[in-house]
Amino acid sequence: MPVVITQTIRPQGTVGKAPTIQASKSPGGFGVQVSANQKNKLNDPGGGSFRDDDDINDVASMAGVNLNEESARIMATNSDLVGTQIQSCKDEPFLAAIPLHKRILEMAKKLGITDVPAEVVTFISHATQSRLRTVIEKVTVITQHRMESYKDDEWYEQATDVRSQLKFFEQLERLEKQRKDEQEREILLKAAKSRSRQEDPEQARLKQKAKEMQQQELAQMRQRDANLTALAAIGPRKKRKLDSPGLLTIGGEGLSMSGGGQAGLGTPSSRQYARQKITRVNLRDFIFYMEQERETSRSLLLYRALLK
Length: 308
What we know:
Blueprint: E1 22-26, E2 29-33, H1 36-43, H2 51-62, H3 67-77, H4 97-109, H5 118-147, H6 162-193, H7 201-234, E3 246-250, E4 253-258, E5 274-277, H8 283-292, H9 300-307
Antiparallel strand pairs: 1-2, 3-4, 4-5
Helix pairs in contact: 4-5, 5-8, 6-7
């Protein structure tokens, strides 16, 4: 008895009648009749993109399962869940609703609008919160970039050190001033030691200036000795323990010290405290942010900030 097996093969770009492969049972085995066009489509690399899907459909049809009916049944069962929005937190406005509503009404009355729904207040509140969050995030990144140091980074090589150059020039100026002061002091001392009978007004002025300089040096020495005596009477300054809780501020940057667990080294009572780094945003960072933004690059707020 002949047996006919129908296999669906969907070539590329074809959604219509599918070719069939007919197999007839004979005493010597199975005879398969496939047309030359179907052979070319099977051997075509571009026409076999849907072959895996066809295999799945063939297996489902052989098992007696209709995928379209199953999909429709699933959609009908879960139809009540489609389009449902689930929120785990309460939708609270960022700004105070009553004062904001009054302010919006005052501005709307000038334009001839008498009624403002509550959804407008909620929308403006959420927009304000989103805007502030964006500004804070960008300014925080700018501040972190300003505070970041590339001195110890192996991928960066220092080309110039302006701070060291300025210190060197300041040291040169200090040495030059010290040399001039010593020369003037020698001149004044020589003028004070001279005992010429015929003294001109310039010589008298130099002697008076030398006497004032000696008195000033003597007063400075006495003040220095008094300070050293007072420090010796007070005693050595006690250093603050780093393991004590508190706030440690270094260079305008706060490091808050909070209690932690037991330390691995030292006495059992010693505690290890975690340091929390505080990022401080100054006016310069905010000005830089406004200069980079298109909305605020030419605003009145930027000009007012630059005048401060």
